[in-house]
Structure of YHS domain-containing protein:
Amino acid sequence: MKIKHNKLLTILLNTMALLTLTVFFSCQEKEGGNTLNSSKQLIQPENPLNKLKYDNTIDFFCKMDITRYGVSDTLHYKGKLYGFCSKMCKDEFRKNPDSYLTDKTVLEHK
Ligand SMILES: [Zn+2]
């Protein structure tokens, strides 16, 4: 009886060790994926949007300096090209573009 119990315990321990290893490795894979995703969100110098010339230097909605932090969305409005840090800011600008354009603090920042 005692031997049987010990055998069972060994099998259990082995199974647990195997499971722990599997979980450990799958976690590592997940973490690797996350790192890739977060690095995508960082401003990349290779981002072609950052090479364009914009008529604004500051995101109209959030007032962020797009020349420093990068552009992830753009909008053509009345023949000018505006850059925005995010789609959300662009959408907010589109709701009432003229009210933002009369804000001289933004345009005269150049
Ligand atoms: Zn913004």
